[in-house]
Design a protein that fits this description.
- The complex is a heterodimer of chains A (115) and B (114).
- With 115 residues, chain A is mainly beta.
- Chain A has a single domain, classed as Immunoglobulin-like (Sandwich).
- Chain A has strands at 5-7, 10-13, 19-24, 31-37, 44-50, 53-56, 65-68, 75-79, 88-95, 105-106, 110-114.
- In chain A, β7 and β8 (75-79) form a beta hairpin.
- The relative contact order of chain A is 0.34.
- With 114 residues, chain B is mainly β.
- Chain B has a single domain (3-113), classed as Sandwich (Immunoglobulin-like).
- Chain B is 0% helix and 54% strand.
- In chain B, strands 2, 5, 6, 10, 11 and 12 form a six-stranded mixed β-sheet that branches. Chain B has a four-stranded antiparallel β-sheet with strand order 3-9-8-7, with no helix packed on it. A two-stranded antiparallel ribbon of chain B has the order 1-4.
- The radius of gyration of chain B is 14 Å and the shape is globular.
- The termini of chain B are far apart.
- Classes of the chains: A mainly beta (115), B mainly beta (114).
- The interface between A and B is medium-sized, with 22 and 25 residues.
């Protein structure tokens, strides 16, 4: 089966600019996650969707980050305006069920550098 | 709240030597435990998981991990490493019951030396 697709792979922007990332999960996977992985740290959950509804966005900086999952398939994550500390790899993952113990399939990530 | 600790940020080991990557968790309830591997410039891949039953779980490429409830540990081991095992390994925990959120450790970089 095809994996989780993410684009772009790399992005360099100046602070205060906006940026958007795209994710296409594995076909049929109900749950989609966006994680932020800062260098030297483990992935941190930003937002979890179940189909097209938000399950958890408690760690999403809502003043600058937004995400949507239209029609319960593809998802986009946006940052506006970006700050230097947003430099990180943004990982998208999906899982087949609503219970997280299935384990996730991750995409290759988008490496964001804010200068 | 649960937490996951990986004390070793880097572990160098010679090829064909054994290795153990340590993981400890804290949780007031039962947990499910996972190990993920991240090869350079790639996303994380699920290596193995413990949900219930036998406390020793194995992966298809020779890694194994043992759930130890009394020591709240889930260490990852391999009796003989290969160059291709060079990667970063993340331990993760998921509390059972209610809404479940996976918590990742900070990762351990395994460097296999030829």
């Amino acid at each position: 089966e095809a994996g989780v697709a993410q684009s772009p792979r790399y992005k360099i922007i100046e602070k205060r600019q906006s940026v958007a990332f795209w994710c296409n999960p594995i076909s049929g996977h109900a749950t989609l996650y966006w994680y932020q992985q800062i260098l030297g740290q483990g992935p941190k959950l930003l937002i979890q969707f179940q189909n097209n509804g938000v399950v958890d966005d408690s760690q999403l900086p809502k003043d600058r980050f937004s995400a949507e999952r239209l029609k319960g398939v593809d998802s986009t994550l946006k940052i506006q305006p970006a700050k230097l500390e947003d430099s990180a790899v943004y990982l998208c993952a999906s899982s087949p069920g609503t219970a997280n113990y299935y384990g996730y399939t991750f995409g290759s990530g988008t490496r964001l550098t804010v200068v | 709240a649960q937490s996951v600790t990986q004390l070793d940020s880097q572990v160098p080991v010679f090829e064909e030597a054994p290795v153990e990557l340590r993981c400890n968790y804290s949780s007031s309830v039962s947990v499910y435990l996972f190990w993920y591997v991240q090869y350079p410039n790639q996303g994380l891949q699920l290596l193995l998981k413990y949900l219930s039953g036998s406390t020793l779980v194995e992966s298809i490429n020779g890694f194994e991990a043992e759930f130890n409830k009394s020591q709240t540990s889930f260490h990852l081991r391999k009796p003989s490493v290969h160059i291709s095992d060079t990667a970063e390994y993340f331990c993760a925990a998921l509390s059972s019951g209610g809404y479940q959120k996976v918590t990742f450790g900070t990762g351990t970089k395994l460097q296999v030396i030829p």
